Amino acid sequence: MTVVFYIAGVVAVIATLLVITRRNTIHALLYLIVSLFAVAVVFYTLGAPFVAALEVIVYAGAIVVLFLFTVMLLNIGRESEAEERRRVRPVAWIGPSILAAVLLVELAVAVASGATAQVGARAVEPREVGVALYGPYAIGVELASTLLLAALIGARHLGQRQHEHDIGELAGAGVAAAGPQGGGPDAGGPAGGPADEAGEKAPAEEPEPALVGDEEPEAAPRTTRFWRKDEP
Amino acid sequence: MAHVPFEYGLFLAAALFLIGLVGVLVRRNLIFVLASIEIMLNAAGLAFVVAGSRWGRADGQVMFIFILAMAASEVAVGLALALLFRRMFGSLDIDEASRMRG
To answer: What is the β-pairing status of strands A118-119 and B4-5?
Structure first.
């Protein structure tokens, strides 16, 4: 089993390197699945079988499939590959790679200077994980469920926004188109009554505020029209 | 069970994390950036599991489950944003987002 750990670790590192260097998105995601499987094997050899199963089911089975769905939904093809080749020049790899290598060496030195200990001496059974998860970490489970609910609502909202926008524009255009035709007679009926009543009452009493509000929209276009006539 | 030194497990986690970091820094495609973030989160979970296995406790695996939930929610929102990004800019290049449109 010790040999399995080293082989899986090497496979994980190589597959992850291939993930970030591929230009084709689908190839990169398939290498990502290989990398996650390798990490799952590492988990199993370290005595964490429950987490190894979760890695395969959730990471490789759900998250990467979500990536693949999105890539197919976006219809990423050759032009994206060519654009990626144009955007990411080989020179761009130098700086981040050097910095990451320096950090890796530093971390290796820092870790190696500590006390040596064996890992994976005892398998932690799923039963223990469950007892810990629903015992002292119960509030964490609640928070994780809240986070997942928030992500669900957020993803739905983000995916829905453009659609609602289209519907809003269509509804706005429909109202604007139906306004002069359909809205006119309906609005004219009730408006005619008060206007006639107001015409009788207006000489005797002060004009009501609602009457002024009704008159203003008609008056405003006329003034602008006169201005346009006068100006040239 | 494997009997490997504790350092090697942490070293593997650090290597995976830094590969993901290089991917975030170098790549310009939004899908690749999200995948690199997934790699980094996975490496952090690996470090937790290695540490939990070092002391034979279940806490590391519990933390990995929380990281898993966070990664799942992050990728759901991130991919919804990728769809929106593509619709708005016609491309997945994250440099397009540096242009502001009032």
So the answer is: antiparallel
> Going from the N-terminus, what domains does chain B have, and what CATH number goes with each?
6-90 (1.10.287.3510)
Residue A159 to residue A154: CA distance in whole angstroms = 8
Q: What angle do CA A28, A29, A30 make, to 5 degrees?
A: 90
Greater model confidence, A130 or A196: A130
Nearest to B80 among A2, A137, A155 (CB): A155
φ/ψ (deg, to 5) at A231: -60, -50
The reply to whether CATH 1.50.10.10 applies to domain A1-96 is no
Partner-chain contact B65 A162, CB within 8 Å: no
For the segment A55-94, what is each residue's pLDDT rounded down to a tens digit?
999 998 899 999 999 888 887 767 777 777 777 778 888 8
The rounded distance, in Å, linking the Cα atoms of B48 and A159 is 33
Q: Which chain A residues are closer than 8 Å to B22 by Cβ?
A: 20, 93, 96-97, 100
CB atoms B53 and A70 under 8 Å: no
What ipTM goes with this model? Answer: 0.92
**How far is Cα B58 from Cα A125, in angstroms, rounded to an integer?**
8
Question: By CA distance, what is A149's nearest residue in B?
Answer: B73
With a threshold of 0.95, does the pTM exceed it?
A: no
